[in-house]
Each structure stands twice: as structure tokens, then as C-alpha cells.
Recover the amino acids of this structure.
């Protein structure tokens, strides 16, 4: 795991990115606007997804240690724009309130518990920062006014995705491989794929050559690992089949 961001900073980022998300939704031509980066979704679908997620994770954090998560809130979501944004604002505050009450170290259920990211409030807060960050990009794309992501947040977003989504003790089902991710802002990461699973780490200075590598800005790398950009949007070297296999892999752990 890379340098740990302070819990208070994560809560502040959730609030800041959520404000940017609401602004993008308000600037869009309407809630029926398509979201190009989420095929088949309208802007309404995107707001409902993110707000429901905030409420679900608020309940997960509040529940503390558990073998399974609580059921998702099935209540109807308002469709009128002003009411929908008020509902999302409330959803976000429910999450922040739960995180504040729990503190950073309180354990809770998390689907990534077998990987690098901790199954606690800190891990949830970090995950939600980047969930909101990427969905803000989606909303801005729908509104036709994409703004650059804060570089430091995007850098942690790449690391968080590797820690949370690309770490598992389940054996890699192909020949051993390694991937180097290089952000032009000066940060790089190593992802090792072998019989012990998939394990990310900051790239050491003496790292052996990788099976494949991808270089771009931190924002480009983040949007790539989240499926918003493709390999053609990055500078790549090595065996691109490694990326394709990693994208297609669905470990059970």
C-alpha cells in the first residue's frame, strides 16, 4: 500500500468530490442525458447508483464487523431534479456521518477483505473517494464539460484501485506476469500476477523489466483501470495480452 492518506482528508475529499458531482449533474441538459462512459445509463441512473451506494456503505460502516452486508435500500428515488439532488446530498451526508462516528479503524464487511485494502472505515472512505471521483467524471462527460481531476487524488486513485480491485490471494490462471504502471507525475506501481495471487506495490528502483507496462497521466491511468479509457489511450510496452487477461479475470476471492 502507498502512503496512507489521513482519514480526515478522505472525508473532506468525499465531500468535495460530491459537490463537484452535484454541480456536474445540475449543469447537464437533463436527467435523461446519456452517460457515454456508462453505456445504457442516463444521468438519473448514475445519480441513483452513486447515492444508493453512499447509503449502503453508510449502513455497512454503522453495522461494524459482520459476515455479510446489510440489504440495499430499496426505497424509490425521486425523479424531479431538485429533489434528486437533495436526496443525493442526504445520501452523502449519511455516509460521512457514519464514517465520522465510526473512526478510521473500525472493522466492517468489505468485498475486498482478502486483498491489500483494509476492511475498515478507512478502507471504505478511500474507496468512496474514488467512486465519487470517477462518477464525477462520468457526470461531467454527460454534461459535456469534463474538468481535470486533482492530480494528487488521481494518483491515489490508481494506487487504491490496485490495492482494492487488483489484489487477491486467488492464483493467477495464466503464466506469471508483471505490470508496471507509470504516471507522468512521477509515481509508478508494480502489479505481480502469479500462483500466490495478484499483489500491487510501489515500483522499486531495482524492479526487473515488466511483462507489460502502461504510461500516462495519473488521470489517464485511473480512467483506464476503471474502464473509461482503453490501452490505445496510453503508451504501452510489452505483451498487451497481460492487460486483456487481467481485465477479463474475475477471481472469487
Amino acid at each position: 500500500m502507498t502512503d496512507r492518506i489521513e482519514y480526515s482528508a478522505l472525508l473532506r475529499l468525499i465531500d468535495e468530490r460530491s459537490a463537484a458531482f452535484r454541480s456536474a449533474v445540475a449543469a447537464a441538459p437533463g436527467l435523461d442525458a446519456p452517460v457515454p462512459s456508462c453505456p445504457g445509463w442516463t444521468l438519473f441512473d448514475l445519480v441513483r447508483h452513486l447515492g444508493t451506494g453512499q447509503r449502503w456503505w453508510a449502513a455497512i460502516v454503522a453495522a461494524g464487523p459482520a459476515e455479510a452486508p446489510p440489504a440495499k435500500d430499496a426505497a424509490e428515488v425521486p425523479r424531479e431534479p431538485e429533489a434528486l439532488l437533495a436526496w443525493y446530498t442526504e445520501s452523502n451526508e449519511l455516509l460521512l456521518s457514519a464514517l465520522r462516528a465510526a473512526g478510521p479503524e473500525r472493522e466492517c464487511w468489505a468485498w475486498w477483505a482478502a486483498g491489500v485494502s483494509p476492511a475498515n472505515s478507512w478502507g471504505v472512505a478511500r474507496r468512496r473517494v474514488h467512486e465519487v471521483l470517477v462518477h464525477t467524471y462520468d457526470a461531467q462527460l454527460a454534461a459535456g464539460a469534463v474538468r481535470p481531476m486533482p492530480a494528487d487524488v488521481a494518483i491515489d486513485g490508481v494506487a487504491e484501485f490496485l490495492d482494492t480491485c487488483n489484489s487477491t490471494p486467488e492464483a493467477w490462471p495464466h503464466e506469471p506476469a508483471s505490470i508496471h504502471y507509470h504516471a507522468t507525475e512521477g509515481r509508478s506501481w508494480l502489479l505481480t500476477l502469479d500462483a500466490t495471487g495478484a499483489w500491487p506495490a510501489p515500483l522499486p528502483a531495482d524492479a526487473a523489466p515488466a511483462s507489460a507496462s502502461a504510461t500516462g497521466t495519473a488521470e489517464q491511468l485511473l480512467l483506464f483501470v476503471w474502464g473509461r479509457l482503453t490501452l490505445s489511450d496510453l503508451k504501452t510496452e510489452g505483451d498487451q495480452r497481460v492487460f486483456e487477461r487481467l481485465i477479463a479475470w474475475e477471481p472469487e476471492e
Q: What stands out?
A: Helices lie at 7-27, 43-63, 81-102, 121-143, 151-165, 218-225, 241-248. The chain has seven helices and five strands. Residues 21 and 75 are 22 Å apart (CA to CA).
